[in-house]
Amino acid sequence: IGLFGLAVMGQNFALNMAEHGFKVCVGNRSPSKVDLTVKRAVAEGNLPIVGAEDPEDLVARLSKPRKVIILVQAGNPVDDTISTLARYMEPGDVIIDGGNEWFPNSISRAKFLE
């Protein structure tokens, strides 16, 4: 599972998934957040979390069909993140917006990805 967006909620969600046996690849615009999350995973029991250098690396590290959860600020950051990730994804891959977004925006983003 990929997770992009490592503010407090994203970082804790990644660690929670890893604690429950999921292998997680994390990414963020700020590399320092990726490094911090990987260090926390090691400190909290050598959890199965790896860091990605950029969105392309994150997608490349996932097995098909890929699943990427995004937890970024609502609005333009969601659009930018989806557009960036979509460049490297294929039909059948899934992007899950885990943020608090207005549902008509989610519908228009789904149409964009079709």
Brief overview, please?
46% of the residues lie in helices and 16% in strands. It has 114 residues and is α/β, with parallel strands linked by helices.
Polypeptide structure, described:
With 114 residues, the protein is of the alpha/beta class. Strands 3-2-1-4-5 form a 5-stranded parallel sheet, with helices on both faces. The chain is globular and about 40 Å long. Helix 1 runs parallel beside helix 2. It is built from 5 helices and 5 strands. The model has no long low-confidence stretch (mean pLDDT 93).
Side by side, the strands of the main sheet go: 3-2-1-4-5
Span of the ends, CA to CA: 21 Å
**What profile does the largest beta sheet have?**
5 strands, parallel
Global outline:
globular
> What is the percent of helical residues?
40-55%
The stretches of 5 or more residues where confidence is low (pLDDT under 50) are none
Structural class: alpha/beta
Radius of gyration computed on alpha carbons: 13 Å
Overall pLDDT confidence: 93
Helix count, per DSSP? 5
Strand content: 15-25%
**SSE sequence, one letter per element:** EHEHEHEHEH
How many extended strands?
A: 5
